[in-house]
Amino acid sequence: MGTLGSHYLTFVDARESEKELARNLQIRAANLNDLTEIREIEEASFSSDPYPEFLIRRLLNDKKSLFLVATRGNEIVGYLVSRMEVGTAHLISLAVQPRERRSGTATQLVDKLSAALRKSGVREIRLEVRLDNKGAIELYARLSFREERVLPQYYSDGSPALLMRKVIE
């Protein structure tokens, strides 16, 4: 029983740590002063094909984009950028610092996006994710995104993407 009990305590401790991290997280609109930290997260998350600085800068300045950052203290630990389209939003990118993954940061960013879109009358979010990125696909499924179809040769290296959609209720 000692082993079972210690695993249980480890699980409970991990859940409590996750709740504590979630409480210390703040989400706000991104600005140009955040560009360096956003690029660092982008490059750590998408090392094979990160968005270039000019595109991130353009998205930060785009009036139709909703660009959010998650901060813990003075440090940016994650970001999300989406673009409003006719009746829907396109989730362009979501990334969290590697050491912060599985802390609830991505979930809080998507929840904040969903709430903002709901207030704007948008009822659907779509995204594309690499077909081999099982972790991201599982995250999006937990966040109520549904698989639509595979988009062959979607990425610049010829890799396919999975199109996913979420209805905002």
Here the CATH topology equals Aminopeptidase
Rounded to the nearest angstrom, the distance between the terminal CA atoms is: 44 Å
CATH superfamily: Gcn5-related N-acetyltransferase (GNAT)
**Any idea how many domains?**
1
Order of helices and strands, N to C? HEHHEEEHEHEE
Highest-level CATH class: Alpha Beta
Kindly summarize this structure in a few lines.
The protein has 169 residues and is α+β, with helices and mostly antiparallel strands. The protein has five helices and seven strands. The chain has a single domain (2-167), classed as Aminopeptidase, CATH 3.40.630.
Task: Please describe what this structure looks like.
This protein has 169 residues and is of the alpha+beta class. The protein has a single domain (2-167), classed as Aminopeptidase (3-Layer(aba) Sandwich). Helix content is 39%, strand content 31%. It has helices at residues 2-23, 35-45, 53-61, 105-119, 134-142, and strands spanning 25-29, 65-72, 75-85, 88-96, 124-130, 146-151, 161-167. A 7-stranded mixed sheet has the order 1-2-3-4-5-7-6, with helices on both faces. Residues 1-18 have low confidence and may be disordered.
List the helices and strands and how they pair.
Elements (H helix, E strand, L loop, with lengths): L1 H22 L1 E5 L5 H11 L7 H9 L3 E8 L2 E11 L2 E9 L8 H15 L4 E7 L3 H9 L3 E6 L9 E7 L2
Parallel strand pairs: 4-5
Antiparallel strand pairs: 1-2, 2-3, 3-4, 5-7, 6-7
